[in-house]
Amino acid sequence: METDGPASVDDASLNERVLILAPTGRDAALASEALAGAGLSAEVCADMEALCRELTAGAAVALIASEALAPEPLRLLQAALARQPPWSDLPVIILTSGGREPSAQGRLAGALDALGSTTLLERRLRVATLVHAAQAALGARRRQYEVRDHLEEHLRLEEKLQAEYQKQRVFLRDVLASVTGGRLHLCDAGADLPAPLPLSGEAIPLSQTGGLFELRHAAKRAALAEGFADERWQDLITAASEAAMNAAVHAGGGEGRVYKGRNGIVQVWVRDQGQGINVENLPRAALSKGYTTAGSLGHGMKMMLESVDRLWLLTGLEGTTVVMEQDRLPPPPQWC
Fold first, then answer.
1. Per-10-residue mean pLDDT, the chain, length 336
2. What domains can you pick out in the chain, each with its CATH number?
3. 3-state helix/strand/coil string of the chain
């Protein structure tokens, strides 16, 4: 059977085909008959363009006569093979002729350099030799399909786990917001953080040897400028101190910055590049006084939540960002 376009059969059958391109003599017909006699699916292609179209539809092996590998057809084949997915290395069987002329030898050498997994069969060859080579190539291709199936199953499992993780995050975010009276906002991305207020102080490097006093002083100065009462600015710098200590001690350092907006609100931002806190530890970190995990955010989070009006938390393997926000006036009791 000769084709100029993709055959209309199911994908499994397409993936088992041996595509044949032998444009001179009766090689194509004889090879197709021999392979069909051995129970293999064979598809004869009119030219290299047709073969490349069929490769896109699905194939197990390409059987190509060396005289079909002129420079332009070879370029088409090489481009088609380059588009294969990572798991795929299509076996290619090349039918050669004995006593090749120098030009044919050069063309064959170019084909071997350009193609991947190739097998050379010299004409005239026995039918059994051709069938054995095709069956061996088909076996190699089937092992590639097994790798593909494993990869796809792994991808499906990863997607399922990611979906479950996201569901867990949403549930946890809602629970934490509820049990903290709406103070804690668990963020999934930087876009979930609040917009910084317009008036910003200088960035303050945080380490175990410095930065804590400067951040506390900047927060106090901003709060007093907004008319905070003593209890309100003291609570703010308490929370800022805890966040800064987490960054300095548990994450190896970070950066703090204070923002205000002339609207009676002060923000304190603390960023670090530590390991963050695991999702499963967040409830204890938020609700248990003094909870910590080695090398992660957590120590004093309950105190921070008790000291500020709102707290946003973005944490993961690439680091943690804590945004604390305090109003000039305390919020009314929830029962009001």
1. 47 90 92 95 96 95 93 93 94 82 62 79 91 96 96 95 86 81 90 94 94 96 96 96 91 94 93 82 66 51 90 90 95 66
2. 2-151 (3.40.50.2300), 180-327 (3.30.565.10)
3. CEECCCCCCCHHHHCCCEEEECCCCCHHHHHHHHHHHCCCCEEEECCHHHHHHHHHHCCCEEEEEHHHCCHHHHHHHHHHHHCCCCCCCCCEEEEEECCCCHHHHHHHHHHHHHCCCEEEEEECCCHHHHHHHHHHHHHHHHHHHHHHHHHHHHHHHHHHHHHHHHHHHHHHHHHHHHHCCCCEEECCCHHHCCCCCCEECCCEEEECCECHHHHHHHHHHHHHHCCCCHHHHHHHHHHHHHHHHHHHHHCCCEEEEEEECCCCEEEEEEEECCCCCCHHHHHHHHHCCCCCCCCCCCCCHHHHHHHCCEEEEEEECCEEEEEEEEECCCCCCCCC
